[in-house]
Amino acid sequence: MTNSSNKRKIFNDPIYGFVSTPFEIIFDLIEHPYFQRLRRIKQLGLTNLVYPGSLHTRFHHAMGAMHLMGLAIEEIRSKGHEITEDEAKAVTIAILLHDIGHGPFSHALEHSIVNNITHEDISQLFMDRLNIEFNGELTLAIKIFKNNYHKKFLHQLVSSQLDMDRLDYLKRDSFFTGVSEGVISSDRIIKMLNVVNDQLTIEAKGIYSIEKFIIARRLMYWQVYLHKTVLSAENLLVNILKYAKELAKNNVELFCTPPLKTFLYNQFSKIDFTNKPELLDAFALLDDYDIMTSIKVWTAHTDNVLSMLCKHLVNRKLFKVEMQGMAFDKIKIEKLKNEIKKRLNLNDNEVNYFVLSGYVANDAYRGDRISINILFKDGTVLDIAKASDQLNIEVLEKTVKKYYLCYPK
Fold it and tell me: Do 270 and 121 meet the contact criterion of CB atoms below 8 Å apart?
């Protein structure tokens, strides 16, 4: 067997069964250390503290999204739309690498490790670096990823309100959490894909699958992604890193793995990543294990606040959470802070790490973004919000806010 044929590997995925690598470069990218790091980053952060089965990783998700992209390409081609072999390869690379820039615990620490730079920005930096290593083979993939390619529907397959990313994570997260409300018919949706005027559409026969998809997404946000106990755990994690950074700024010695030390004892922004290529290599070594190993050691730190916070997380002694539809009364929050200060012997600054308040927002559908378009037999194309006889436009587009207050029990 030749080396090239060895690159057409088959992976056994719990959601889709056997998943194959459609291009040789896909296998090479999967084997790259940048991509292998995704095995060490959980897809749902600390959600496993609520749903014990949700231990799947960004690696699982990227592989699943890649598989769905292959099905979508095949379907769109079967309906007479041209997707060249180079375009198919490029859009598959784009979806495979779309989350490669995620840091430890995925969205939970999005702004805790670095400042003013998103995981999409870091994904872009990784792709640019890989493009150099692969002698320009990712150039077209990067154009599609950045929506700079003339066939806009290819970018919509990667990033839109009905992309392969969402189709995979809803089904996968539902499976691993056991939350059946997130089950969607990704096969049915992909079979209904079409293209009109360079825009991705769904044939009218698939409208009910799209309605189910939108409802499932809304329910998964409240029941899983924005679950109040998950919010408590992830806010606690964010505050641990925030407090550790405060200590590091004051030159307090903290046990850290080398990659974490780089980011804990320095403040880096997007410009720094551009000007200092070595930062990307340091970030590429950072994963969930660096964070949890350090937090576990910090439970015995001489700083009482850091030790207490870390013990709460490691031992799952999570803060109590209250949620409501309006902002919490400032007087109530101040009264609570005073009680916690006395009980835990904290000062005015320290208590802010134990009493947390804010809000989360959930919208099922955004009419101001790339629409989900429904294609009728007569050629008419309508936004799902107007085409649906089940979903009210005002309900679809309404952003629902819930305010939370977390504090030690």
Answer: yes
Cβ-based neighbours of 363, under 8 Å, separated by 6 or more = 397, 398, 399, 400
Distance between CA atoms of 67 and 92, rounded to whole angstroms?
A: 9
List the alpha helices (DSSP H) in 9-135. Answer: 24-31, 33-36, 58-78, 85-96, 119-133
Position with higher pLDDT, 396 vs 172? 172
Contacts of 86 (CB under 8 A, 6+ apart): 140
Give domain limits for the chain. 3-195+207-227
Quick check: 364 and 393 in contact, CB under 8 A?
A: no
Count the neighbouring beta carbons within 10 Å of the beta carbon of residue 152.
16
| Second CATH level (architecture) for the domain 3-195+207-227 | Orthogonal Bundle (1.10)
- DSSP 8-class letter at 55: -
pLDDT tens digits, one per residue of 354-398 = 999 999 998 878 866 778 999 999 999 999 988 887 666 567 677
**Helix locations, 134-276, DSSP H:** 139-145, 152-158, 164-177, 186-191, 207-220, 228-249, 258-264, 270-275
pTM: 0.94
Rg (CA), the chain: 23
Sign of CA dihedral 338, 340, 343, 345: negative
Residue 1 has a pLDDT of 31
How many residues would you count in the chain? 409
Give per-residue pLDDT as tens, 30-63.
Answer: 999 999 999 999 999 999 999 999 999 999 999 9
